[in-house]
Specification:
- The chain is mostly beta strands.
- It has a single domain, classed as Outer membrane phospholipase (ompla), Chain C (Beta Barrel).
- The protein is built from two helices and 15 strands.
- Strands 1, 2, 3, 4, 5, 6, 7, 8, 9, 12, 13, 14 and 15 form a 13-stranded antiparallel β-sheet that branches.
- It is globular.
- 38% of the residues are buried.
């Protein structure tokens, strides 16, 4: 279980964040990620060498878009945390501009959307529902720049079902982006997301303070640099900052090696 409180939007999150599908309805972009670094177990306060395998897809369709990812996580520790576990999120979005066929917004505001997100963790048996509102912005150099405000509704079964404690409901605010730039003949991306989730109280009456999770990625187009197709093979890093990780008072600051293959 990696991101029990996350990713309110998605990765990489985004989250992080819906990656580079930016035009033409009924198009999809699929990526496979490998990440390696030392991640914090907030329940033991120990850092363990960890790897994450991710399948993610961003899709554009007639009335909006969709983004999902599934993580497979494992670490060197055998303490019941991040042990061959799965975590996933899905964010279908309806675009007001696409549905009406009219320009929505003005100035820096490019569009307004409606989100219906789902987060699910395997071992922790956690399910969160995230209905909300998206504002899409125009910004020079950005393929997309979104701000998402969503409710954070707990649909988990709780300790009685062998999972993490149920919590009351809260809210999530997320910023996600994709920015492209070049230096000489080399091409780069900065993508990811940053979110804030409000405080919650669990089924035992314990209150968790609000948490911040930021997962920016710096990606180099390695495939293009070595004479292959552009936009297919990336190398870089992901920096993860997580305050009050998973309902604890532990803060994480971690750099992970990132390899990404785009179909």
């Amino acid at each position: 279980m990696r991101r029990l409180g996350r990713r309110c939007s998605g990765r990489r999150f985004v989250v992080l964040a819906a990656l580079a599908v930016v035009s033409a309805p009924a198009t999809a972009q699929t990526e496979f990620h490998f990440q390696f670094g030392e991640l914090l177990n907030p329940f033991s306060a120990q850092e363990e060498e960890s790897f994450v395998l991710t399948l993610q897809q961003a899709t554009q369709w007639k009335y909006g878009d969709s983004f999902f990812f599934i993580d497979y996580l494992d670490d060197k520790g055998r303490d019941g945390f991040n042990e061959r576990d799965f975590y996933g999120e899905w964010y279908p979005t309806l675009s007001l501009g696409k549905m009406t066929g009219k320009t929505v917004g003005g100035g820096p505001l490019a569009d307004v959307g409606f989100i219906a997100g789902v987060n699910a963790a395997g071992d922790a048996k956690v399910v969160k529902y995230l209905p909300g509102l998206r504002l899409a912005w125009k910004a020079s150099g950005f393929i997309f720049l979104n701000t998402d405000l969503m409710l954070y509704l707990d649909g988990s079964s709780g300790v009685g079902a062998g999972g993490a404690p149920r919590t009351d409901d809260s809210y999530c605010f997320d910023v996600n982006w994709l920015y492209l730039f070049s230096a000489g003949e080399q091409s780069f991306q900065i993508t990811g997301h940053a979110e804030y989730i409000g405080s919650v109280t669990n089924e035992f009456g314990q209150t968790y303070g609000g948490s911040i999770l930021a997962q920016p990625q710096f990606r180099w187009d390695a495939g293009k640099a070595f004479g292959g197709d552009a936009g297919k093979l990336f190398a870089g890093i992901e920096y993860q900052y997580w305050s009050n990780k998973l309902g604890t008072d532990e803060d994480e600051s971690a750099v992970q090696l990132l390899l990404a293959w785009q179909l």
